[in-house]
Amino acid sequence: MMKGFGGANIGQLMQQAQKMQEKMAQAQEELANEVVTATSGGGMVEVQMTGKKQLVKISLKKEVVDPDDVEMLEDLILVAINEASKKADELSEDKMGSAGLPSGLPF
After folding, report:
1. What are phi and psi of 13, to 5 degrees?
2. Can you give the pTM of this predicted structure?
3. Cβ pair 46, 39 in contact under 8 A
4. Domains along the sequence of the chain with CATH
5. Cα–Cα distance measured from residue 48 to residue 9, given in angstroms and rounded to the nearest whole number
6. Which of residues 20 and 6 earns the better pLDDT score?
7. Neighbours of 25 (CB within 10 A)
8. What percent of the chain has pLDDT over 70?
9. CA-CA distances (angstroms) from residue 76 to 45, 59, 99, 102?
10. CA atoms of 69 and 88, how far apart (whole Å)
11. DSSP letters of the chain?
12. Torsion, Cα of 41, 44, 45, 51 (10° steps)
């Protein structure tokens, strides 16, 4: 029996690594299946994004589409996307934490 790494045997370390890998795969799958929603302009623009930051849908109310003020619409879309991205980050942190994984791992 080989010992190292502070007395833990290699078999135990390999089992722990495999369990962590399984938890990470499960968390990634959950993130891919969960959707966060963010709005801007009082609900005039709505964005849906998965927990892995893939845009799923952008919805615009007719009233926000003003050909004379395209810049405002662009800004509202950016705000909604950035808010959805922030929510996806929070969801990712929550999933990793509940799976017992360290935060800051790339998903």
Report:
1. -65, -40
2. 0.74
3. yes
4. 9-98 (3.30.1310.10)
5. 46
6. 20
7. 11
8. 85
9. 7, 11, 35, 34
10. 29
11. --EETTTEEHHHHHHHHHHHHHHHHHHHHHHHH-EEEEEETTTTEEEEEETT--EEEEEE-GGG--TT-HHHHHHHHHHHHHHHHHHHHHHHHHHHHHTTPPTT---
12. 90
Which pLDDT score is estimated for 3?
53
Residue 51: how many other CB atoms lie within 10 Å = 24
pLDDT digit string, tens, across residues 37-56? 999 999 999 999 999 999 99
With a CB cutoff of 8 Å and minimum separation 6, the contacts of 92 are 31, 51, 52, 107
State the pairing for strand pair 55-60/45-50. antiparallel
Side chain identity at residue 76, one-letter code: L
